[in-house]
Amino acid sequence: MAQIAQETGVSITTVSKVLNNMPGVGNQTRERIQKVVERYDYVQNHAARHLRKGQSGLIDLVLMRLEGGYDVGIMHGIQDALKQSGHRLVVFATNEDESTERLWLRRLLDQSTDGVLLLLPYEQVGITDALLAQHIPFVAIGDRNEPTTAFPTIGSTIWLGGYTATEYLISLGHRRIGIITGPLHLMTSRARLAAYREAHERAGIPVDPALICEGNYLLGDGIQQTHSLLDLSDPPTAIFTGNDAQATGVYQALYQRNISIPDGISVIGFDDVMYTAQMAPPLTTIRQPLMEMGKMATHMLLNLINGQPLDSNHIELSTSLVIRNSCARPRNGSL
Amino acid sequence: MAQIAQETGVSITTVSKVLNNMPGVGNQTRERIQKVVERYDYVQNHAARHLRKGQSGLIDLVLMRLEGGYDVGIMHGIQDALKQSGHRLVVFATNEDESTERLWLRRLLDQSTDGVLLLLPYEQVGITDALLAQHIPFVAIGDRNEPTTAFPTIGSTIWLGGYTATEYLISLGHRRIGIITGPLHLMTSRARLAAYREAHERAGIPVDPALICEGNYLLGDGIQQTHSLLDLSDPPTAIFTGNDAQATGVYQALYQRNISIPDGISVIGFDDVMYTAQMAPPLTTIRQPLMEMGKMATHMLLNLINGQPLDSNHIELSTSLVIRNSCARPRNGSL
């Protein structure tokens, strides 16, 4: 204001009056000030500036649950990618509740966003359809219910990860490997199970259906299904879980039964979330490159927002085996 | 647009031209359409609507680190409180990096926000001063460097928590209790240590300075300082940590040395983050009501935004002892 006042030769009060559309300034003076103001591209805030360009300066992340594992890993990558772009990240968790999901969607359509990152394996109120209809750019990250090319998705090589995990346990001498899956209506849960079967087949080991337990990617499944597996007349010597939260549940159940890891039973997880190295013993797991997935999804979204074409509508980053201390040869195993 | 076209008796194209400030429409028609538009309170999006009222519809959360523990607990409470208010939550992590902190502050002042939640124990670039100068409402949550009444803060009864933890270990028969603190330039780290001393004094037990280790609230401190404590000629029989991340570090170090919990050494943490119940053994800890803290801070902020007075500028919610399985009597302890 001081600069504008100086340049136009009026008082700061006069400039303020013009900026706030208050009376008491002659038309000529008002016009003169407004011209300088326009040259300075004076806008009260960035929101207004974005609005002119039809942009809000916001990217929305919608996720199912704030759990502090998988989600936080991906958020680290998103934050990192947004450092340069100048966008702010709006975060919303639906908590798998249909009405909350609807609330988010209504608010998003009603308010404004430049683009959306979806961290929802499945949706209940047609979010992707609504985003497509409204031409709001979006990228889906991670597990999806069904494969699609209708919109950009980024994931990791889940099947290969499941294969690597099972093969590793087999290589240690395990022949009875329990598996605790995610919900089997999810593609990526089925991919892990298919890979588990494939690794068995390749090694010439028959799969006992009693060793396959369906869970929901929650700690609680890990506890409950481990107890079921241990109650079998011929219990497994190793357990492979769909994610690290389930693996911590397995730890919990084994602790309750006073069975040591890995001497009593081997455990292998999936994801490599932040706390896996801190578990006792540190968890051997299949790493999903969460940070890189978040980063790449954000770059894809920013390209879409800027009207640039994507190289590919679906990208999978590579999973890898992280060997720590939760797997060993079975007690009576032979190689 | 169709509705406006019908009501004013013009084509949709004409309405569109007026809405987008394009030429080719007579002044009279333009005015007529604009009146109807105004009546419909037609705005392209909520951002514009907020802008008119001088509101962005956004609340900013700035935090030091996205760790998946303490921070996620508080975010749950914030999200819950914002469900009703209609605000969206913008999240930003500074990662304790001065230039990133500066970037956030510049972006915040340049863009727009209705209010800020600070989850920063200390700041490097004068964030609170800048927010106060710009009259941006804000509430600080949790640990702060120094006590202040210059702006609203919400915390928990840290000193009492530290006292309760130490007293509990003493009641189990421990006489040599190691403590791994947070950085001692932080008020709340000093509060835990002061409470530890107080509980000792009250029980008539002298404090051995060799048992006091300063850390940085990180897992790594927990590991490192546990090894230092165990290398003492007269090592502790119990360890009290400044937060749960440090406690998981203690678990890790004890696992490396093949010392069992709680038979070999008792461990008590602080915070009660989501994963504590999942640790093996489940961690006994001092609970901070993280969700409630996030919720109450948000309610305070919304009151400030709406120009309502606060009942108090500083509120502390109560900590509590959560007894699980990581503490027991010392091996040679006498009661």
TrEMBL record, chains A, B:
Q: Which domain of life is it from?
A: Bacteria
Which InterPro entries does this chain map to? HTH_LacI (IPR000843), LacI/GalR-like_sensor (IPR046335), Lambda_DNA-bd_dom_sf (IPR010982), Peripla_BP_I (IPR028082)
Q: Which residues form a coiled coil?
A: none
Output the PROSITE patterns linked to this UniProt entry.
HTH_LACI_2
Domain (HTH lacI-type) spans 1-53
Q: Which Gene Ontology molecular-function terms are recorded?
A: DNA-binding transcription factor activity; transcription cis-regulatory region binding
| Keywords (A to Z) from UniProt | DNA-binding, Transcription, Transcription regulation
**What name does UniProt use for this protein?**
LacI family transcriptional regulator
> Gene encoding this chain?
lacI_1
